[in-house]
TrEMBL record, chains A, B, C, D:
Keywords: Carbohydrate metabolism, Cytoplasm, Lyase, Schiff base. It comes from Solea senegalensis (Senegalese sole). The lineage of its organism: Eukaryota, Metazoa, Chordata, Craniata, Vertebrata. GO terms for cellular component: cytoplasm. This is N-acetylneuraminate lyase. It comes from the Eukaryota. The keyword Cytoplasm applies. Belongs to the DapA family. NanA subfamily. InterPro entries: DapA-like, Schiff_base-form_aldolases_CS. It is an enzyme of class 4 (lyase).
Amino acid sequence: MAPAVNNKLTGLVAATFTPFTTQGEINLSEIGPYIDYLKEKQGVNSIFVNGTTGESMSLSVAERRDLAEEWCRKAKGKMDQVIVHVGCMSLKDSQELARHAAQIGADGIAVISPSFFKPSTADALRTFLHEVSSVAPNLPFFYYHIPSVTGVNILARDILEDVWELIPSFKGVKFSGSDLMDFGQCVSYCQTHWSVLYGVDEQLLAALVMGADGAVGSTYNYLGCHASELMSAFEKGNIVQARTIQFKMQELLSYAKKLGFDLGVNKQLMNELSGLCLGPPRLPVMQCPMSEALTIAKKYRSLFTEC
Amino acid sequence: MAPAVNNKLTGLVAATFTPFTTQGEINLSEIGPYIDYLKEKQGVNSIFVNGTTGESMSLSVAERRDLAEEWCRKAKGKMDQVIVHVGCMSLKDSQELARHAAQIGADGIAVISPSFFKPSTADALRTFLHEVSSVAPNLPFFYYHIPSVTGVNILARDILEDVWELIPSFKGVKFSGSDLMDFGQCVSYCQTHWSVLYGVDEQLLAALVMGADGAVGSTYNYLGCHASELMSAFEKGNIVQARTIQFKMQELLSYAKKLGFDLGVNKQLMNELSGLCLGPPRLPVMQCPMSEALTIAKKYRSLFTEC
Amino acid sequence: MAPAVNNKLTGLVAATFTPFTTQGEINLSEIGPYIDYLKEKQGVNSIFVNGTTGESMSLSVAERRDLAEEWCRKAKGKMDQVIVHVGCMSLKDSQELARHAAQIGADGIAVISPSFFKPSTADALRTFLHEVSSVAPNLPFFYYHIPSVTGVNILARDILEDVWELIPSFKGVKFSGSDLMDFGQCVSYCQTHWSVLYGVDEQLLAALVMGADGAVGSTYNYLGCHASELMSAFEKGNIVQARTIQFKMQELLSYAKKLGFDLGVNKQLMNELSGLCLGPPRLPVMQCPMSEALTIAKKYRSLFTEC
Amino acid sequence: MAPAVNNKLTGLVAATFTPFTTQGEINLSEIGPYIDYLKEKQGVNSIFVNGTTGESMSLSVAERRDLAEEWCRKAKGKMDQVIVHVGCMSLKDSQELARHAAQIGADGIAVISPSFFKPSTADALRTFLHEVSSVAPNLPFFYYHIPSVTGVNILARDILEDVWELIPSFKGVKFSGSDLMDFGQCVSYCQTHWSVLYGVDEQLLAALVMGADGAVGSTYNYLGCHASELMSAFEKGNIVQARTIQFKMQELLSYAKKLGFDLGVNKQLMNELSGLCLGPPRLPVMQCPMSEALTIAKKYRSLFTEC
């Protein structure tokens, strides 16, 4: 992997699924093929591992370590950057994973807000983030903002306030929310070498126009090439083309949502579209009936050509 | 006013405040000057009256009739279009106002979802909207979508499904929400002579890139010329300039929100910036302390030149 | 009706449905039989009219006046008290209805919080309530607290603070919420001649043990005699018997909720159980399929003997 | 400890705080004195450890093991029952802790719903609970229901449906919610050797009248003797006395809530009232200013005599 400290993270980043065996144990052997698939079929050059899509909160700390290690090892020479999500409900666990990420040569770490006990103020959350970053002070640090999942309604912009003093390794935000005033204020405030990455795939174009540096999401696992096309159309000023692609992504995801789109369905859809064997999700996420994934895959194929 | 049936509503639309006397009665005499101010100072050519900004739900039906009539009368020859919001909790009241709007020559009517009893399905809301439209079948009809206020979480796109069969006078949506997948799906589905207007001013640019035909909002009462500049920069492909203006709007509104920005503050800010005498809001909206409006006005002046 | 000013409102109060014709117009002729049914079959001696169950927010002001007048006229000599709910989104409308209630000899008025514009503080809501009460200063005044419907999360106890200074005619609270700390604090703070009435029928027993003076609810339209039995069992210290009845009420309502229990279903169930012709609900509440009401009625009959 | 399998858990159960050193490490040495305090000063005979009050989600699995072990060891011969909460976001971690609880001689285990990934149906949650119970099949199993914290709005009653077939070791519910219809339906459905324990301390009396077998809560750490008095007054049929105590508890907790009552304040209040050294909370819960705890302690002393 490239020396991340000098490398601004941009473009498309796939939030990876965690491969499981059919018995529900983590399946490290599928990581190599997964990386090849992302690079070769989807044109994706950076990954965000052990995040929400990766079911990190359903993993033990030991499993997260093993997975992170394998992702970093197999990505070497293939991916530009591997960002390891180390957020946990417990500060202790996050710190352990942050230290570990530094040892295994991750390009950066990301931390979500704890959500069982919710920080009551921006200051509480900032202090939590600081405590994690401080055990891996040389690793680029990203704040992972996803209020609809955490229920923590603190503005991302309030986390950023003078954050370089608190977290000198700060490098950006993965912003998975629909409040684009907050998002715009983050873009406006950010230093040029930071990255503001957007995480609501179905409205990526809106974030691009607000100044997003890139995108991190689960659908880029199978919509990577199309999302890349959207991004380059936008960069070239071809709004109509970018919008057309975005609308197709929306049509797919609207369709899936009507059928009940959750992480279990998403994972099964990925299995179907990629040919990889990522297995079922882990409880409390339920495995979806194959028919449901097939129905969505059919819709996918009616909208998109193969990458 | 122009013959609206053939005229697609586009561009900037100000959602007007309702002028009150200091005693809290509606003040029709301020409507003429208000229209002149919007046209001359803000470059706004269409208005949306008796909506949320207009405190319609705090008005009696008789007051809404008087106001609508005066808005239409004074706008004649000055404004392109006057859209009268006729949505009420009671279908009966909405129908009365819709009939009245037809009589006074409004260019269109808009209807919000009832929100005390919330429609439980798209079908229930569609039937409600149909019943209102049917008493004024020749008036262009707009659905007013604002889920954060109504608490009605029905997708706008689901309202649009084959809506021309149900409401032949259907002409568009005022979409005041942050779900841009739903918004994009509305744009994608809409007929070309319909208007998809966006109503979250602080992220207007995001809606433009998704294909909005225009915008309806309260801040265009005092940010009209700047929002127009944003829109034309976007149309010319000057994203950076459009973004710069959007960020300044966001900075103003973020600042106001930290101080506690509600309709009472917004109205007082408008009084301060416009020089009009729109009076206090009506209960349960409380009048804001003058100092608060002045502080925000000062911020406004630090960010924007006068229109 | 008895001189309400000296009469504390206690016991069971039915929140009445509004009778409609099959064409959806208000049907005053059914009010007389409805009152006889409540008194003779259900043993209910007081009514709360034009409330949530009465679909007041779906009625015009004129309809509410006509209904209130007929309820008061027909209740004379039969009911102990008729409380007319006069709460509206618009203060003007509420004041008109409050004045009218005084003219027609209502025993009291009740006011809900406006919920389109939500009061931002207890003070804002208190001021609103004060403005309504002040036009009918001799009518006993009740605050109607139902946060799950209004979305106004102001503690009822905060409304009560020194309320006699603000509203000298204050007589009590209809508390339709599940926060029994707030409820208990209301009971604890209330003057002895005030009434604290509970409005979540399925957990009435919990409110009784906390000191409720009575209950107002829609299910007392058809569970009146059983709820009376529950209340007298509780008063006699027969907790086990009271609980047994409460559990049966819960079983009925849980069952109904699983099938989708809303006001439309509730009204149709009432039609089926009472034999009255109260008609369909008004939009946006949808009429329920007869089969659904019949299924619930069957459950009712399996649990309860006829009153 | 008594042989729990035959012992129904009833009465008052303290949800214990986790003792930390001032440096934020777990402090096992304070557990012995804590147990003595609970037994001698508060008259509490059972404890629920590593639950919400115990900040379990902020602990590592290793810390939770160490704590559980020490609680069980020190409680031997002093407490009737020690219930170890083993719920985690990760099924793997929960299973590890359940196995461990069996080894250390816990009297029972309790499991909360995972809340980062929320089970989408009762069936998903039931399957999760089953998977935990199955690794410690001889340990009495309690479902811990606290929807306001988890955001999982599945009825507890739906978890209970035929639960003995799924979890033969099932012994009851810790119900920390305000939906007393659901609570009542649990009581009504439960087998006689199961326990339905209530967890919203400020409305305990409401649960008792609905048939609660006991109570689990954090305030019983310092209100234990008073809550016991409430419970025995209720059992003797002295509702007025029980209500008087409940109202004092409500007055204290209302007062604390106005000041901003969270786990950090609660823990500091406990330090002040008990004289124990339980230390600060762990991030993201912030330590409260001493003055705030002292203010609440003063209120406590104005309402209650020392136990």
